[in-house]
Amino acid sequence: MSIKILAILTLLASALSAFSQEKMVKVSSMNYHVLTRSLQLRKPGQPVLVFENGMGMGLGNWNTITDSLASNVPVFLYDRQGVEKSDKVFQLPTPQKIATNLRLLLKELKIEPPYILVGHSMGGVYVRAFAGYYPNDVAGLVFVDPADFTETKADWNQIFREIGVSEKRIDEMLLKRLYTPSKPDSSRYAAWSEGQVLTDLRKTDFAEISSLPVPQVPILFFVGGKLEVPIERRSKDYDHERFFEVKNSFNMLRWRRFIHSSSKGGALIYLSNSGHFVHRDDAAMVIGNIKMMLKALEK
Q: Does residue 10 register a pLDDT over 80?
């Protein structure tokens, strides 16, 4: 690489850094760790990418894609309550509470809609909730291997019937998954509480979320197709590889229906060499498709 090119790249990196702000922001008596990029360059009506992290995870988990995206569009990232630098609070982070707090955060920072919401894992559940509570604020939805907010208990049980598990064992596994109490973990309360919220939602077949409207915006799903469970941790009761294959197939069928619930359409992208952290395993694919969504919204 020539000295001239290196100097240009260094200058560009410095310019981007100059338009980044990391700070603590207080809303509803709580301090949230927030990172914004390129907000000063925002054009009138331009969407802002708003990221929701995976269960108990901090905003740094998105660092494989946000640098590149921030060169095209403003970016907002934050840590939910109790995560990393944000204040701890011993309250269950329900979808409505998280959606309310996020909207207050955005208002406090004077980041007006529209937003393209990007959610990974449990963050996908929270993105779906925000989009349902505030559909007029949303310009696009991006789900990165999300926890399945379209799933019912009947759907879950059908996976095991498909792979030959007995009805008795299915009942036992459902009891363990949803109805065996979990002791609160104060040392890891953020992750534990988000897991508890997910369990409670599964008990009701995601009633709170499924009753909310779907905004008529483009929708993207990225699905990781690589089973990452180590052999020693795989189930002894059934073929774990077959379970993963069938579960992904069932999930994608419902997610396709979810995409079709929007008149603006979208895409479901299955990445066979990516695990659950699709945005880290195949950052280029995620970046490229989000940029295409942005481009389409300009028309």
A: no
Mean pLDDT over residues 51-74, rounded? 96
Distance CA 127, CA 123 (A): 6
Residue 9 lies in a domain: no
Tally of CB atoms within 10 A around 13: 11
| Partners of residue 119 on adjacent β-strands | 52, 143
Number of domains in the chain: 1
For residue 119, give Cα distances in angstroms to 3, 23, 42, 62.
39, 21, 22, 10
Over 90: is that where the pLDDT of 246 sits? yes
Residue 198 located in a structural domain? yes
Residue 5 resides in a domain: no
The span from the CA of 280 to the CA of 275, in Å, is 9
Q: Two tokens at 2?
A: 């020539």
Tell me which residue range forms the domain holding 75.
22-297
Q: In one letter, which amino acid is 235?
A: S
